[in-house]
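Design review, sub-item: ligand-bound model
Attendees: FS, YL, KQ
YL presented the inputs for the zinc ion complex:
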Amino acid sequence: MRVAVAVLMVAFLVACGPNVKAPVTVMALLYNGSNKLGPKQTTLDTVTNITALKGTVVNLVGGAGVTVNDPDGPDPFSLSDEELLNAELTSRGGDVHANLIDKGGVLWPADFHSWAMVTTYWNFEQSFNYFKAIYDGEKTDTLAGAQVLYWGNYTDLGVADPAKQVLTDNIIYFSDVRSFLFAPFSQLQKVPLAMNLGVVGHEFSHRVFNQKAFGNQAHPVELRWDGAPLNVVKGVDEGLADFHGWGVTCVAKEGPGCSTRYLALSFADEAAVAARDFSLQGQQNCMSTALRTAIDNLHTFEFQRVGMEYKLGTLIAAALYQAAEPIGQRDIMQKALIQAYDDDSTQSLGLRQLFEANLNTPENVTLEAVSDTILSHITGEELRRRACAELWDRLDLHPDMIPLPHCPNTATRGGTCPQ
Amino acid sequence: MSLGRTLLVLALVGSTAAWAQRKKDDAPLPYDEQGEDDDKRRDLPRRSDATSEPAPEPDVESKGRRRSLASLDDPNIGLSLEVVGAALLLDSSRGQTVEGLGLGGIRVTWEWSRTFLTDEFWREIFFLDLTWFASRSSGPGGFGGTTEIFDSVNYHYFTLAPAFAFPLGKTPLAVYGQVGGGVNYQTSSIFVQSQDSTNISAVRFVLQYGLGLRARIHFISEESFRENGYTGIPCLSVRLELTRFRRAYMDDTVIGGSVGITF
Ligand SMILES: [Zn+2]
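KQ shared the predicted structure:
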């Protein structure tokens, strides 16, 4: 009997995990004084379940799996959102269980993935806060609440080599299931991508692009396009994602401070990181013949296979950066981009409207058309003039052939790139 | 830190053993011939030879006394020392169900009913495990992290778990079930970008429960026993076990076993 009582007492003592209300004070791997990551105290302001890392911004899910391009599966374009989710989210997964130690009211992660998951949630919270600020009063309800499939399995049955069907060393926003997916790391042995603030901000931007420019379609009909128009759309999506990812590094609390080289934290390949650095002066970030040829001629599958969407994206981000930074108008540019995604006012239609108007005439979705859409949302003559000059120069636009009605008359082509 | 814990466990083991020994000295039970059950009699045929041994004399010198008593009584006072080896299926932080690790340990088992109960059935039923289970994951491999960011962890479980055994007929086997509790002592050292590690540890209550199969294999052959009598280590004890821990809000599973000696 005494044994039974003792056992019962132990059972009560062990039953409960940390049950705390946001803001929750935690340790996460953030930037310290020497600009390295390290354990640092912070707060998660939106969590509702700290051990499961669920909250109003995102919900982490462990053990989930996505399967795409199943040759025996239905055509994703033919499915409703719910059918698509059921077809592709092949394993729903379950709660994660962060191992947390309470030290004087501060919750310390007590193993690697607990550190990683707390830091991941923090990164998403910072990213959400960034977008909330530049949404500038617009509702962000739909932006919040995505699942993060932590250590998720993403299997692409369309890949011929079975050994390469499972995604590793990546993090994606996959709109089909409206979830972020952090795939296992394998070759990348630096900072895991989910622990990289700028990378998470980049992925968050893809969710924004999907919700706004694609009108929140799970599997956008625009993906039926191929070649130049879709290559342009992919490049714009990546370029804006890099630009916003950098924006997140600039404003995050306990953040690293502005860094256009946030990829360097996670990637050992210096040359690849430098190639994505849109702040670099000089002719690196100019349209090349190879890129122009790729945009115009490659099927989008091939265009992406060789990573050309990032090359194009870097040029777009570089133009936006060089237009705004020298005159201190970063936040005006960021807000303009949010407006440019989706706008049905006749003076300044958004990207969504550009795409939807040209579903059957995708050849009209050009770098000029996309640039003009962005320009039409930039307030302030000077910033708009600079942006036009930069886009014109870096993307090698041809306003003589495809006009840029929203480029101010005072603008001339920028002088960085060879003509 | 783990050395200190090891010493603590060894001290606990030592004191428990000493206490059990003292109890045994006080208790009249081991002298009770009728206390043995049938299967013990079969395993230890010395009983049939008992008449050839002289009855113990109160003033006989200690060496001869121990020898003659041992040959008369059930040699098991019911105290075992075992080494545990198992797979630890640790609750997966990242929601992958479990994380597999190796686990080792030391267990002291006291079949206290042999000392305190006289009924020949109930004498075989109860025992108590005092166990130290230990497991670790070091460096970037497994769920440890990347070469640039990794966490090395140690898990120590110190538990006391009463058990109920059900002997399987005339075999040396018994199935058992147990529920107990104790503490888990965990350490974590996070290493980031070649900086000094940051360390943290915690002691948390654990609930332990499980099932197993326990065997007591006699160490001394009948022939050897007839010639030399009981010389000290009567049994090899072996276990297979499925043990679970509720560690705060996490669930860990141990699949493995232990082997040791039983006095
Ligand atoms: Zn991207």
